[in-house]
Structure formats: C-alpha cells, structure tokens
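Help! Submission page says 'invalid entity' but I think these are all valid:
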Amino acid sequence: GDSVTQMEGPVTLSEEAFLTINCTYTATGYPSLFWYVQYPGEGLQLLLKATKADDKGSNKGFEATYRKETTSFHLEKGSVQVSDSAVYFCALSVSNYKLTFGKGTLLTVNP
Amino acid sequence: NAGVTQTPKFRILKIGQSMTLQCTQDMNHNYMYWYRQDPGMGLKLIYYSVGAGITDKGEVPNGYNVSRSTTEDFPLRLELAAPSQTSVYFCACSPLSGGSNTGELFFGEGSRLTVL
C-alpha cells in the first residue's frame, strides 16, 4: 500500500539555522505530494505541494522538490525562525481524494 | 469565515458511553474526512465522504460511525467508547477543482477525547 516515511524527531535548531526534514514515499500510482504544518493547539494546514516530478513547491521560505527517481520530497528552509516551531507532516495522495500522512516531525527552534 | 468547526474541543468519557463529535464546514466543499491523531503515529483516516449521502470507511473505522445528510455537516459517532479511542480527532474538508479533488485539506482545530 501507499506509505510515507519521514525523519524521526524531534529536531532542535537555533534561529537562522538550515533545516532539512527528509521524506520518502511508496505509492502504487503517481502521487501528488504535500507538506502540512501543525502549530501548537491547532489543526494541520497546507504548507506546500507538488503534483508532478521535478515540481518545486514553496511557501513562507520553505521548499520541497518532487524527486521521482529517489521517491523523495524533502523539506528545506535556509534560515529558520522561532515561529517555525511546529510539527511537520509529509503526505501523499494517489486516489485524488485521500491523503496518507507520515508520522510527523517535531521542530523546535531556539532563539 | 469560520472554515471547519468542531465541537466539543475536549471531552472525557467513561468506558461504554456514547457520544457524537460534531463537524460543520461553511466552505461548500464536497469532500469531508475524519482523522485521528495519536502521539508519534501521524494521522489515520477513520471515515470520509465525497458528497452528501455518500460515506466510506478509511483505515481505522471500527468503533465509529458517520453520516452525511448535508454538504455542511459530517458528525462522527462513537457508540461504545473504549480506552483505545482516546485520541485527538480532526475533521477536514477538501474542494473540487476542475472536477477533481485538489488534495488540499482544510482542518478543524481538533477534538481531544479521553476515555477512562
């Protein structure tokens, strides 16, 4: 079946550090890929997405590139802020209306 | 614009009790979902609906029921609460675009349920 594996947390960084959260996937079809973010006490919200190979999704300084050859969709940000502290979820959708989520990665950014 | 509204936000149940988690969306989205979130386990799909009158099971439907009588409402029913149902429950909706689901989900703030 479809699955998403993302890097185990927690990840702790200092402000302005570079962030990478790894995500790889297994899918029976040709998926769309997503990163969602969950701030403390809130529901998830879409951060960025990519729908085909080599697409780059970007938002709020975060980027991720859809790599079909390595079945990966790693999340990166060049300079994190304290306000980026949250749980990040990688997800995929093959069926066009159901998402499969990874387990989430907790990011804490210290000033 | 409220988006997706879930009630209650917190609830404690005794084993064997029943309750309904309410979910209402004002975005006129066709697709609605219920997920549960357990620590370190990500989100698991319980039930989903592609439109009023149509519901289907997700990965972990046992112990739950849903209905979708209107586009706006998608309540989740727990008939006989068990400790294994202690979790945070999220309702979400998703729009159609060009006849296809976009894959972008809009989530409510969650309902934290404890079964003792």
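Support: the input was valid. A stray whitespace character was the problem, and the output above is from the cleaned input. Chain A has a mean pLDDT of 93.
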